[in-house]
Specification:
Helix content: 10-25%
Order of helices and strands: HHEEEEEEHEHH
Low-confidence stretches: none
Number of helices: 5
Oligomer: single chain
Structural class: alpha+beta
Distance between the termini: 29 Å
Number of domains: 1
Strand content: 15-25%
Largest sheet: 3 strands, antiparallel
Radius of gyration: 16 Å
Number of strands: 7
Length: 175
């Protein structure tokens, strides 16, 4: 992924107001991000702990036209308590201890979102899917799932899963 400016990031959001986008805090490590290892920028908002954000680069979208696309997500107030020992991220398919995956909810874009419609997804709690797929970060799960796919194939699958989620947020409800 090519580095994005603060202005590009703030202008990219499709499911929040311009005011909300102007108030969001960029990642604490923004200046030191490993852009070359990222397929999308994802972070928990340090100024609003119940918010997270994802920004896709322009080339992630079909046709590659336009600028980056950002979505804002709500983080659950409390971590779920369950007997489940492990969970699977639906974007990168990395297995985590149950606390390593969170159900995040994104308001839909436009009128549907203003009416309260959301799209939820179980995703890595730290939004570091790109790093897990590349083996740059390891989950805290004792037993790991081995795949026969190459790193490039896992990256392609992750990008397709993320794009499907973002398109579900962007498209009009019922489309």
């Amino acid at each position: 992924m090519k580095p994005l400016s603060e202005k590009q990031i703030r202008a990219s959001f499709v499911n929040c107001s311009k005011g909300d986008a102007a108030r969001l805090k960029l990642p604490a490590d923004y200046a030191d991000l490993p852009w070359e290892d990222l397929d999308f920028l994802g972070w928990r908002d340090p100024g609003a702990p119940l918010r997270a954000h994802i920004v896709l680069p322009p080339d992630a979208l079909p046709g590659g036209a336009g600028g980056p696309v950002g979505i804002t997500l709500r983080v659950p107030e409390k971590a779920r308590t369950s007997a489940v020992k492990s969970s699977l991220c639906r974007i990168c398919l990395t297995g985590h201890a149950s606390s390593g995956v969170s159900l995040l909810a994104a308001p839909r874009a436009g009128v549907a979102g203003r009416d309260g419609n959301t799209v939820g997804i179980y995703i890595c709690s730290d939004l570091a899917c790109s790093l897990y797929v590349r083996g740059k970060r390891q989950p805290a799960l004792r037993t790991r799932y081995e795949e026969s796919l190459s790193v490039e194939e896992r990256i392609d699958r992750m990008r397709a899963n993320l794009l499907a989620f973002v398109e579900n947020v962007r498209l009009p409800f019922g489309a």
